Every structure is written in C-alpha cells, then in structure tokens.
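Progress narrative, work stream C.
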Amino acid sequence: MFELIFILVFAATLLVTGFTMVTVIGATFLAFAVMFILGMVGMVFKLLPWIIVIAVGYWFFKNYVVQSRRY
C-alpha cells in the first residue's frame, strides 16, 4: 500500500511542478517498476526464514528418508 501511495504522490508532485504529461507518465512507470522490484525483494526477505526451513527439510528428506527407502 505504501508503494501505491508513493507513486500517486510522486505523479501529483510532478504534475504540480509543471512537467509535461509524457514525462509524468514515464516517471510514474519507472517509479512503479522500481517500487515493484523493491517490494519483491522485501517479500523474499520476509519469507527467508520459511525458505530456509523448506530447503533444510528438502535436504533432510533427500539425504536421509529417500536413501533409507532404497535399501
């Protein structure tokens, strides 16, 4: 939600300062892309503990559980 508010305020600021509509649209799309990428990176950091737990569980299952079933 913060990203959306930032982009709207950013576009409004550009419009008030007198930039053309083409530069406002371009800057808004660029700001949206940057905030989208940073939001995805933030989501990965937020989910990092669960990703580590899943990776350790997969490693344990692959090395110990499946190996004991083969013999």
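Work stream C, second folded protein:
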Amino acid sequence: MSRETVRQAIRELLLEGRLRRQGRGTVVAGPKLEQPLSLASYTEGVRRQGRRPGRSLISLDRFPCPEALAPEVGAERGEPVWHMERVLLADDERVGLESTYVSEARAPRLDADFDPDSSFYAYLHDRLGIVFGDADERIETVLATPREALLIGTPPALPMLLLHRVSRDTAGRPLERVRTLYRGDRFSFTTHLGRQD
C-alpha cells in the first residue's frame, strides 16, 4: 500500500472523528460526549459521563451594549455588558469554545467573584440567587474560523456544531446570550421528544 493511500485514509478517519491528533501523533478517538439539550450546564453533562469538565479563560471584557444585543441580555443600549470567552475541556482535551454575554447589572462582580474554570450557571444560582427558567436554542453545523480552530486545536476543515442560546430567568427576564462551538467529532446532542396535542 502506498504512503499516499495511508495518508488519505487517515485524513478521512480524522474527519469522521474515528481518529484524533494528539501532540505529534494520531490516536483512536474515544466515544463522543453526549450533551443533553436542556437547561443543564456543560459541567453537569460532562460529569454525568464520568469525564472531568474544565474551562480555560481566553478573555473577560466589559463593553457598552450594542442595540442588537440589548433585548437578549435585558440591558439598555450603552449599558455595560460582560463578554466571556472560554475554551471547553473534557479530561484536559479541548472540545469547544464558549462565548457568553450577560449584563453587568445581573453579574456586577463577575471579574472579581467568578472562577472562570467553574460553571457559570452554578455561579449565577449559588452566588447570585438567579435561577434559569427557559431558553431558546438553535443548532447548526459550521466550519470554525482559523482563530476558532486554533483555540480549539482542530483543523479548519473539521465540522463543528454551533449552538446559539438566549436564556431567561424564572420571571421571564432575559439573562444571557451564549454562542458555543463544539467539535463535531467529539460531541453529539440528545433530547427527549414528546407528542404534542
């Protein structure tokens, strides 16, 4: 068998998620993480499968809220809004990139009180007494930008699952907007469907 045939086979297995790059080598990929489509946090979903969740902070910035974002985070245009970007980890393997927007009024000391390696949902609930009520979520497949691929550690041609979520508290007030990019070779999503009459 020629080297080029082997290289092509490896490229195809990488794209299918059956192999993955690790350092300078190529190893067999483990089973995909199954993330439920629910108001549970990433942390809870990964722990349920016996894996160790983690996050690596890329940036935490405050900026004036643009008009398009204002209704999604419950802020007025120009009011301060936090933007937090983190790489998602499972057993120290980079599996996703999360971008969260929340108004400073809802989380005034986010930069001082929050451990960026921990669950944002647990912080809102345990430290601020905020309970999630419901959310709208949209899922699509995309290719990562070169910057995103570099942060997640994947080739740019690897398909990604992109989730857009707008969450509200139990009183129906807007709370956060989240854009999460998951590796298509490491994640699948599950949900329970019931019949509607």
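The radius of gyration is 19 Å. No further action is required on this item.
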